[in-house]
């Protein structure tokens, strides 16, 4: 099923993101995680794509197929294009089609530092136009409530986003953010620009201080004081940090749902404990919101 149909049927689409195991580990190492995530009944699971763009050591297609065909959950395969030729993209699309994977998160990917980009695709919108010609795939794209790192301003980023949406994006997933006010301001600006497709909020719970610091340095998300205090206070107690991070993420999600968000995309970091705790904590709120849509 194309994921956009889920947005048509319910108020809030709830999904998980996972990353494939390293190429040196057997694919089976992810089975336990997937079985645990399956119990939580997400609407779909997305699978990240290695930045290198090398088809031979990329497991995204394999894992997306596994999610769909072994675990019976709709899957969304991430695909970056900056390091890929059209021929390489064709091979991946064909493979996904053969495996029955119907949804792609079409991304540019980060500009490579060491090597020259291939140059056949320069922006995500070009990949979206390309996939659109192939027919049959639902297409999601990324957006950035605080603006993308390469953009001169949030306004300029939203203008570029409009081009990406018009190229054939069904719905958007945001970069992680820790302060919902950025998300609400971004939603207003996007709507003013005529972007009215569903936008899923990407939420990353804190599980590990160093990991969060690394991710924040890569994406530039603002970190509120309340969040910094949690990380500093519990950095040496893994369980306490995880539980405080879960509570913070739950508060963020409940505020988003109460404010009418169309979806929550949880960056699980392959940690089923965190995914389970969050799902349990928001389940009645999710159910209420989705029942309301049925009534409307
Ligand atoms: P684009 O939409 O092409 O934008 C990139 C930059 O170019 C922006 O600054 C934008 O303002 C500008 N721009 C875009 N279009 C135009 C235009 N027409 N004219 C002028 N400027 C323009 N990376 C991975 O490697 N693997 C993953 O699996 C992965 N998953 C992700 C999932 C999500 C939900 C998100 C939010 C990001 C993910 N990323 C992933 C990171 C992403 O690849 C990087 O953020 C990348 O730098 C930008 O990708 P994009 O598709 O948003 O690019």
How many domains is the backbone divided into?
A: 1
Biggest β-sheet: count, sense, barrel?
Answer: 8 strands, parallel, barrel
**Structural class estimated from helices and strands:** alpha/beta
Low-confidence stretches: none
Query: If you consult CATH, what is the topology?
Result: TIM Barrel
Radius of gyration: 18 Å
Summarize the structure.
The protein is α/β, with parallel strands linked by helices and 296 residues long. The protein has helices at 4-9, 31-39, 60-69, 86-98, 124-134, 154-166, 180-192, 209-219, 225-234, 238-258, 272-295; strands at residues 13-18, 44-47, 74-80, 103-107, 138-143, 171-174, 199-203, 263-267.
Any overview of this molecule?
The protein is of the alpha/beta class and 296 residues long. It has a single domain, classed as TIM Barrel (Alpha-Beta Barrel). Helix content is 48%, strand content 14%. The protein contains 11 helices and 8 strands. It has helices spanning 4-9, 31-39, 60-69, 86-98, 124-134, 154-166, 180-192, 209-219, 225-234, 238-258, 272-295, and strands spanning 13-18, 44-47, 74-80, 103-107, 138-143, 171-174, 199-203, 263-267. An 8-stranded parallel β-barrel has the order 1-2-3-4-5-6-7-8, surrounded by 4 helices. Helix 4 (86-98) links the parallel strand 3 and strand 4. The protein starts with a helix and ends with a helix. The mean pLDDT is 94. The structure holds flavin-adenine dinucleotide. Flavin-adenine dinucleotide binds at residues 48-49, 51, 78, 80, 105, 107-110, 123-125, 142, 148, 150-151, 157, 160, 163-164, 173, 175, 202.
